[in-house]
Amino acid sequence: EIPGIADQVARKAGEWKAVPLAEKIALLQDCLVKSIDLYDEWLRLGMIGRNVDVGLADSMQGWGKADVAICGPAMFGSYCNVLIQYLQHCDTNSSGKAPPPVRQRPIIDPGNADNQKCAVTVYPNGSWLEFTETVGMQGELILNSPEPQQYKYTESAVGGVAAILGAGNYDVPSDMLTELFLKGRVVIYKPNPVAQTTSPVLQQIFATLVERGYVAFVIGGAAVGSILVQQPQLDEVVLTGSVATLAKIEPLIPNKKKTSICAELGAVNPWIVVPGKHWNKARVDDHARALAWAKTVNNGFVCASPQVILLARDWEYRQEFLERVKYWLGEHGGSSPFYPGSEKTHSHFASLESAETIPAKAGPAFDNQQETIFIPNVSKDSPIARDVLRREAFCPVLAEAPLDISQEEDAAVFLQSAVNYAETHLFGSLTAGILMDDETAARPDIESIVANMKFGIVGINILPAFAYSMAQLVWGAFPGQSESGSGFLGNCGLYQNVEKAIMRAPFFWIGRPLVQVTTPSHASFLWDRMAKYKMNPNFFTQILLFAALFLGV
Questions:
Q1: What count of other Cβ atoms lies within 10 Å of the Cβ of residue 8?
Q2: What span, in angstroms and rounded, lies between the C-alpha atoms of 176 and 178?
Q3: Does residue 123 sit in helix, strand or coil?
Q4: Comparing C-alpha atoms, which of 286, 351, 343 is closest to residue 320?
Q5: Closest listed residue to residue 175, CA positions, set 137, 215, 144, 210
Q6: Which site among 22, 484, 498, 534 is 20 to 30 Å from 431 CA-CA?
Q7: Quick one: which of 209, 267, 239, 280 has its CA closest to 19?
Q8: How many whole angstroms from its chain centre is CA 274?
Q9: Are 392 and 428 contacting, i.e. CB atoms less than 8 angstroms apart?
């Protein structure tokens, strides 16, 4: 069956590549309209798949509903709307290129004059709607070239056939959107069995593309995936999973010269806290509350979930910061422990020396709810270092590794030392979070350190995982650092020589309540509004979002 499907889809590759861009845009708009119509069904099936009681989804199990909204409709709407905007520019612009950057600036490396990079700002795009949405947040790409260069759409949309082994922790098919509309490939998509309950919705969303033969869905487990990646027609295999998954798939590909691999794997992600004069008790609580949310969203089943806090051992706010993180972890109502096998990993981390369990103060909202595990004061030489620093938890586990770098050191010295520690001792290169004040973040030497970090996505005062929902940014490991995979998704600006994405939010950010621990009922209400705004962005849906965020109505 699969060889026949692969033949049928491959025969459509040349036709899809030749479809006029205006028609492709119309097909993408059709997908978006269908997703809006199917929003309630998407939520319903997503909750069923995660064992969320629909009757409790607006109360004690509200975080379960919020996670479905975040990881499916909200991200899908965000990705599609940006893709449409950029592709329309490619279609109507005589150069055939995407919009130029909003801003660009050189990155000066004080230690290496030959290391010439530049930063391009791609978010917000200059519209009033995005300006009011971001309230100071920015998205950038770091390019390994002194000036930005962009491909024409026809140069990027190379065509061919892609097989995609979908993610189990997210419902949004960003990988399929990238392959179809940015690389110009027809797609055979195999949903992950963990996320298979929402597959009927995805098949309806892409129904027109399926009818025309440009997309095919195949359903099954590992055996089906193994057969799929062995098909000789494939030009690229895209997978989301673990290092073990990649190790099983890679030897099965028959022609490695023809078929490339885009592997989106995980990591032990650092969260670096840079000391500075602008920290106070209010900012400590503000960022601790956001870090607790970043850890618990989707029950930690996020490849960009923070796992190790890096801070100065003598930082004056160290103990208070950790106590507030633990407080807010306890205030989180709990998410569904839906990912198979996570209970074994969770139990393993709970058994480690000095591990603390932090129960939800309101009691468990789900059967077999996984209490957050906090592991303080981990040294790289301790017996548990290999577990904590080199093993991705992929469940609610958060550790602290204090660094013997004085808070009195200059911020650049501290940050570079923390980055060196992360690059040397932590597994992977997917994402890194940094907390620091705006004055420090704007320093040229700090910008140089961030630009040269060997991580694919860096979030300054914000969870880097949001980049997965933003087609104008990229998602993937730092080039050449294979532990977290290879290749990027996204980059609808079609930039050449991309090394990483950087997301920035102000140290004191009015939008931070969106990404902080709140009550389950409010989380359900808030992220429902956010998803509807992202799927249909206009000032009316934005006002409704702001009313939920700031007024609770």
A1: 13
A2: 5
A3: strand
A4: 286
A5: 215
A6: 534
A7: 209
A8: 23
A9: yes
C-alpha to C-alpha distance for 457 and 453, rounded to whole angstroms: 9
Structure tokens, 90: 């490619």
Gap between the Cα atoms of 454 and 124, Å rounded? 25
Quickly count helices (H) and strands (E) in the chain.
22, 19
Question: Between β-strands 498-504 and 457-460, what pairing exists: parallel, antiparallel or unpaired?
Answer: parallel
Q: How far apart are the first and last CA of the chain?
A: 51
Q: What is the DSSP letter of 387?
A: H
For range 286-300, the mean pLDDT:
98
- Site of tokens 């055996």: 223
Q: For 99-126, what is the mean pLDDT?
A: 90
CA distance 190 to 2: 11
Distance in angstroms (rounded) separating the CA atoms of residues 59 and 409: 47
Query: Residue 295: what pLDDT?
Result: 98
Specify the 3-state DSSP secondary structure of 283.
Answer: helix
The alpha carbon of residue 159 and the mean position of all alpha carbons in its chain are separated, in whole angstroms, by: 26
- Classify residue 211 by burial, with Cβ atoms within 10 Å: 0-12, 13-18, 19+: exposed
Phi, psi angles (nearest 5°) of residue 367: -65, 140
Tokens representing 144 are 């390994």
The pairs formed by 357-364 with CB atoms below 8 angstroms and a separation of 24 or more are 358/326, 358/329, 358/330, 359/330, 360/330, 360/331, 360/332, 360/333, 360/334, 361/330, 361/331, 362/60, 362/333, 364/334
**Of 243, 170, 177, 245, residue with least CA distance to 206:** 177
Question: Which helix (H) or strand (E) is 321 found in, with range?
Answer: helix 318-331
Tens-place pLDDT, residues 339-361: 999 999 999 999 999 999 999 99
CA–CA gap between residue 476 and residue 480 (Å, rounded) = 11
pLDDT band at 7 (very low <50, low <70, confident <90, very high): very high
Q: Above 90 in pLDDT, residue 337?
A: yes
pLDDT at 230 over 90: yes
Q: Is the pLDDT of residue 297 over 90?
A: yes
Is residue 96 over pLDDT 90? yes
**Tokens in use for 467?**
């980049």
Taking phi over 0 as left and psi of -120 to 50 as alpha, with beta for the rest, 373 belongs to beta
Strands ordered across the beta sheet of 215-217: 215-217, 186-190, 161-165, 236-240, 260-264, 485-486
Distance of CA 514 to the CA centre of its chain: 16
Whether 281 shows a pLDDT value over 90: the answer reads: yes
Torsions phi, psi for 517 (to 5 deg): -60, 135
Strand residues in 314-419 grouped as ranges (E) = 356-358, 372-375, 397-403
In which order are the strands placed within the sheet that holds 372-375? 103-107, 117-123, 138-143, 498-504, 457-460, 431-435, 269-273, 306-312, 397-403, 372-375, 356-358
Phi, psi of 114 (to 5 degrees): -80, -10
Q: Is 365 exposed, middle or buried (0-12, 13-18, 19+ CB in 10 A)?
A: buried
Nearest to 108 by CA among 410, 445, 492, 553: 445
